[in-house]
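During the no-cost extension, the postdoctoral fellow (Dr. R.K.) reprocessed legacy sequence entries with the updated structure-token encoder. One reprocessed record is reproduced below for audit purposes.
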Amino acid sequence: MKKLIYILVSATALLLTAATADAQMGKREYVNLGWQFNGTVGNSFVKSAQGYGAYIEGGYYLTPMFSIGGFASFNTNNAYIPKQTYTFEDQSALTTDVDRSIYQVPFGVSMRTRFMRNEFQPYLGTKIGPEFSTQSTYMSTFVNRHDNWGFYLSSELGFVYYPFDANDFGFQFAAYYSFCTNRNSAYDIKGINNLGFKLGIAF
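Re-encoded structure tokens follow.
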């Protein structure tokens, strides 16, 4: 009988400890949003790293460590080319400076595996889905614009930090690499590679 009482007391203590830990870890669902700094690499059209971006993502932990959800983000990268002369197929010429821009909007499904369940939660994430992109060239008063769709794949390594006890509010930092299959034969773009990081808040 004493052993049974000991087992019941121990089990109750463990359940109370787990319940307290769950309260401190927050809900199983999460929402992250914030600012995104993005760099385009591997193309000759626009090579730049700029902070014209934002993101939002959310998910639900199907198990204590693995979640599935959705995401959406956008970023713009610009490049300025000083004045020079351009010759066209009809032998006409134009002397002007040029602004180039790549605008990207990926969205889709996200998956995340976290490695710890306390106030500091490092994780590894993957995102897949479609991407809408626009590549634009601004020459004086003329704009040459191309819109296209592609397949987007991204991996990221980051962490979420909840500094306040019994509160689901925290902060997020992550570094990511992404690739999309968007193509533009006019600018010899055969996919767009991105490398960047993001800072945000977590709920």
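The first helix runs from residue 2 to 25. The helical segments are 2-25. The remaining legacy entries will be reprocessed before the final report is submitted.
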